[in-house]
């Protein structure tokens, strides 16, 4: 059993990761600014802001993994990178592994590139996509002793297309995962399976990977 802390544990990706990890019997702590509308069983919820790590007390102590599932929306629109910098500084030099949930646009469109970002992003998604790209760069520049992984979801991923748990997924290295028909999608529940599998059986150390069907 691992102790897993999920920052943004009541958001779309975070809540699915929390539920999957708890269902597998892990000791799960969900950190969020708001209380969950429907708390998951066997999960500890801590209300607070990741921008005030001292205010969260000892929540990170003895964590085997900390997953950062923050979205640059609302009052976090321009502060996700600041928050991630703080978490990196807190975990550097500790045994805790850091996982960060990014976006699809930083993944490659094909082996060797270019990135989806370089092919053009609709203006309404540009800011969120850039935050994901910048977050990966922060991890790549982090102290060598920090064990991290970064997960790119597929192009379609979010509460507007929640889907169902099938128990399957594929990883694609740094290339976006697409089905044979060209679609790029995964349900929130199956995405969470991939994340918790990585925590239980690390295959990407100081590296990123893509997930999809």
Any key phrases for this structure?
213 residues, 8-stranded mixed β-sheet, 8 strands, Rossmann fold, 26% helix, globular, 4 helices, alpha/beta
CATH topology name, in short, is Rossmann fold
Q: What is the global morphology? A: globular
Question: Strand order, biggest sheet?
Answer: 3-2-1-4-5-6-8-7
Could you state the CATH homologous superfamily?
A: NAD(P)-binding Rossmann-like Domain
* Ends distance: 28 Å
- Structural class, by secondary structure, is alpha/beta
Mean pLDDT, to the nearest integer, reads 97
Strand count, sense and barrel status of the largest sheet are: 8 strands, mixed
β-strand amount:
15-25%
Please write the CATH class name: Alpha Beta
How do the SSEs run, as a string of H and E? Answer: EHEEEHEHEEHE
CATH architecture: 3-Layer(aba) Sandwich
Task: Walk me through what this model shows.
It is built from 4 helices and 8 strands; from the N terminus they run E-H-E-E-E-H-E-H-E-E-H-E. Helices cover 26% and strands 18% of the residues. The protein is of the alpha/beta class and 213 residues long. It has a single domain, classed as 3-Layer(aba) Sandwich (Rossmann fold). Helix 3 links the parallel strand 5 and strand 6. The mean pLDDT is 97.
Helix and strand topology:
Elements: E1 3-7, H1 12-23, E2 27-32, E3 43-47, E4 65-68, H2 80-91, E5 97-101, H3 123-140, E6 148-152, E7 170-171, H4 188-200, E8 207-212
Parallel strand pairs: 1-2, 1-4, 2-3, 4-5, 5-6, 6-8
Antiparallel strand pairs: 7-8
